[in-house]
Design brief:
The chain has 243 residues and is of the alpha/beta class. The chain is 39% helix and 18% strand.
């Protein structure tokens, strides 16, 4: 979750910590607002913004209340102003330099994705161990050897690391990033990383997501039948399919 936002003009002001689930939705609202702004919209109602974002209007208004933003009755929200507020709260009012480690098939696709830079996450450093990749430029950035992480990341101000290595290499790469001062990591490797308490890790496991979708496909196919999957909750709160 996001830490309290300091207000230098009011030392007595207390700002609540924003729940992590709300932070994820704020990012969605920001994306939608960008699309509205590109289309020339100047204002948007809470109902309109909620519908496009896939939430109900009450939840949206509660989420935005964490920013102290309530809109204007009968008018809604000013698109540009709300964009600015969300960018500030999400830390996007200045670019977040990203380092990509692992430039194989997935990594190469991530490196070529233009949406990162356009949303304030320019990839400024890339690393690999493959001698055929090290020293070659990708989108104007030279791929460096993984051993250069300690010197390159601080030099280019990396704040976020993306790991797209094989599972067996991910922990060592993570340790190198953390030692280089990178405390926010997006992990695409199919493994759980062990990190200090001050390091934030977000895991993207595409295989797990496909397995969840497969579960729902099976539920629809067998709907109403004796083998229709049912969900119970294990000790850790995760969903478990039973038949």
């Amino acid at each position: 979750m996001l830490p309290p936002q300091a207000d230098p003009g009011d030392s007595e002001k207390v700002v609540k910590v924003i729940p992590e689930a709300t932070v994820a939705r704020l990012a969605v609202y920001l994306r939608v607002l960008g699309q509205l702004a590109d289309g020339g919209a100047e204002t948007v109602s809470s109902e309109e913004l909620a519908a496009v974002s896939g939430v109900n209007s009450a939840k949206l208004r509660k989420d935005l209340s964490h920013l102290g933003t309530y809109g204007i009755r009968g008018v809604g929200y000013d698109v540009a102003s709300l964009q600015h507020e969300l960018e500030k709260v999400l830390g996007l009012d200045h670019p977040q330099a990203v380092a990509l480690v692992g430039v194989g098939n997935l990594g190469h696709a991530l490196a070529g994705y233009g949406g990162f830079g356009g949303r304030g996450f320019p990839v400024t450093a890339m690393f690999d161990v493959d001698p055929d990749l090290v020293g070659t430029p990708i989108n104007g950035i030279e791929v460096r050897h993984v051993r250069d992480i300690p010197s390159v990341c601080p030099a280019v101000g990396v704040t976020i690391g993306m790991i797209a290595t094989p599972a067996q290499a991910a922990q060592q790469v993570c340790d190198q990033l953390v030692a280089a001062g990178v405390h926010s990591i997006l992990n695409f490797a199919p493994t759980v990383l062990q990190v200090p308490a001050e390091v934030e890790v977000r895991k993207v496991d595409l295989a797990v997501e496909l397995q969840v979708l497969a579960f729902h496909v099976a539920g629809r196919i067998n709907e109403g039948g004796p083998t229709s999957p049912q969900v119970v909750h294990g000790r850790n709160g995760s969903a478990v399919a039973t038949s």
